[in-house]
Amino acid sequence: MKLIVPGVLVVLSVVLMLFRSPINLNLPSEVSPSTVASWNIARQTLQDHALFGSGPGTWIFDYAKYRSVATNLSQFWSIRFERGISTFLTLLASIGLVGMALWFILLISGIVKSASHLVRERDDDAWQAYLTVFAAGPRSRSSPSSTTTTSRIISRSGSCSRSSPRSWAADRSRGT
User: Fold this and answer.
1) Tens-digit pLDDT profile for residues 7-21
2) What is the pTM of this model?
3) Which of 8, 41, 128, 170 is the most exposed, having the fewest neighbouring CB atoms within 10 Å of its CB?
4) DSSP letter at 76?
């Protein structure tokens, strides 16, 4: 009975992800390099700067240096993209193998800490809040050079791992 509202929200979210929204905002299209082009740029950048990448916020320079010659014959010849098709490929080129390994360690530790807290926590309100934050995860496609994506991921993983003061006080009064 307590999971009806979260269940309805999950179903509504899935429906809105799969089908076109009934609200037409007439927003301009977002253009980005293709997956193959982004992969090639990331791969070539890693050949030159494997360990630490080319540096945060440098995808625009990597794109200018490693883009395909065929791009010069397309309508995108004068456009300099600030990120690739995905945050993963952009970060791979920008922060390198060491940075990606640290990202995965941060992500896995947040998932493990949150999952273990979900298993231990039995307070219904706190459990639902943690589950919502844990399941939501980062969904934005903001610029990887900004700190928005990083701060969202860190704040969400941090909020999953902290217990509420009420739960802590209740645990303390029970002597656990």
Assistant:
1) 888 888 888 778 777
2) 0.54
3) 8
4) T
